[in-house]
Amino acid sequence: MDAPRPLAPADVAPLLALNNEHAQALSWQEPGQFDTLLGTAFHTRTIGPEGAPAALLVAFDQSAAYDNDNFRWLKARFSTFVYIDRVVVAASAAGKGYARALYDELGETAAAAGQQRLVCEINVDPPNPGSVAFHSKMGFREVGRARLDNGKTVAYFECPL
Known about the structure:
Strand content: 25-35%
CATH topology of the domain at 9-118: Aminopeptidase
GO molecular function: acyltransferase activity, transferring groups other than amino-acyl groups
Pfam families: Acetyltransf_1 (PF00583)
CATH architecture of the domain at 9-118: 3-Layer(aba) Sandwich
Mean pLDDT: 95
Order of helices and strands: HHHEEHEHEHEE
Number of helices: 6
Strand order of the largest sheet: 1-2-3-4-6-5
Structural class: alpha+beta
Shape: globular
Low-confidence stretches: none
Protein name: Acetyltransferase
Distance between the termini: 24 Å
Keywords: Acyltransferase, Transferase
Radius of gyration: 15 Å
Helix content: 25-40%
CATH superfamily of the domain at 9-118: Gcn5-related N-acetyltransferase (GNAT)
């Protein structure tokens, strides 16, 4: 299996396209907005050949200047954390363990930086049972819920490191 790696410039356009294919779950990004997202993140990794990546993980730590309702909810409750803002795997790479590899590598990086937890949100309305099952297997537990202005209801999850 391919290992997580830092993003290369040739990865950005295909990762933006991959993100936007899954915009309902992740949120649509314009090119400049996506560049800012990647440039301000605590941790970004991909898997797959340069220029043809098959997966993306973007995470922020508590010090990020990130204007996001979910990030603000978590920041109000935890003094330190690494927030998994988005993880996406191309349909052609599903079932290859890429999400697990990205999360494992993030956990190692976060722990080495002195972090104590990974956090994320998962849609519950509209439901995303596959994501809930994946995160439960990875050791995440639900710590709260919120209804967002866009009509989604999300559950917040934490995984101690």
